[in-house]
């Protein structure tokens, strides 16, 4: 029988444990920046929990109070799941981690747990496992984004902004908006910059500093990464250099 263990990262064990993503490249900029980002978030109530099978990583979950969340969603007294990723499937590990987030939310007297999903990308968690765990969809946004909630309090439902088109109008030149919440942001940025250089396009990079900027500027609910060119969304997830060139040519 497999031995299953949950390991919660904190200031004391982060250096030894490290984050789940890009763990095979511990000297990469993305991995280093993610761990630095985590170190500054634990005091805000962020939880980063790895699930281990026979001492080997099987997946992880990351969640935090909504007022510190890296997702573009409004609401009060909710817990927000940023990421859920499982590599050993079919054993209920995703549900086990979701139940842990719900338990923590209840112990902190939250009114529920919310998550953003999108069937068009693997950069967000899968919707099906949350529906299975009594989440329901309460809002949607362009580009396929869905807002799900497991609600056990009486707060009004959380919701997305409605001004997505207006946000795109803020950026005419090629602009990358990002935070370090995801370790793949670094390579994602580099791929777009390389593609833009090949096409002779100047790239502006905006490192979002706080949640107020995130809520005001982000072109999608995903929040931590968005590429805009000529008032059009290029991408909210990683593109290869080739794919970025193709997408930018469509907008030139």
From TrEMBL:
The keyword ATP-binding does not apply. Keywords: Acyltransferase, Transferase. One of its GO terms (molecular function) is acyltransferase activity. The keyword Cytoplasm does not apply. InterPro entries: Acyl_CoA_acyltransferase, GNAT_dom. Pfam families: Acetyltransf_1. This is GNAT family N-acetyltransferase. It comes from Bacillus bruguierae. The lineage of its organism: Bacteria, Bacillati, Bacillota, Bacilli, Bacillales.
